[in-house]
Amino acid sequence: MKIYLFVDGDRVTGYGDRPSYTPHEIEIEVAENHEVLRNSRIFRYVDGELIRDDEHQLLEVKNRKIHELSAMCNKAILGYFNVDLDIGTYSFSFDKEAQDNFTNTMALMNNDVTEEVRWTAHKDGEVHRVTLDKNTFMTVAKAGFNHKCHQISRFRDELQPLVEQANTIEDIKAVQW
Length: 177
Fold this sequence. Notes:
Elements: E1 2-8, E2 11-16, E3 25-29, E4 43-46, E5 49-52, H1 54-77, E6 80-85, E7 88-93, H2 96-110, E8 116-123, E9 126-133, H3 134-165, H4 169-174
Antiparallel strand pairs: 1-2, 1-3, 4-5, 6-7, 8-9
Helix pairs in contact: 1-3, 2-3
């Protein structure tokens, strides 16, 4: 079967079944079941031959997994965290808007502009508005900060090193958020 490889240096970046007349295109014959047809990016083209590059494939899988874990980390950060308060245990949002609200409210409280704030919290699947004095607000804000730090640490200190040290694709796939 005739295909047209697209190469960058010696790295195969793709292929087509018709010439595209682009620079760095190479016409070759391959078997109809050749692996290059399923995953061309794991090959190099050197001295007229296709060479499978498992190390490059492993690196690509690692990079995809790290991006996947980073997205999961961001999703977890933007979720909810729980805080035990005198009035009960509540969940608080830590999405972008909530983070901005925490920052702005903390600045106002630290500058003695306000001593308390009404805040949206969640308990037993219901939305509640709770009044937080300065000390209680700081407890909630610190819990939010710790929530964010925990997610980042889980990603950067635990999971990313496991991916980077993995020697097989199976080991990489086994790393889950």
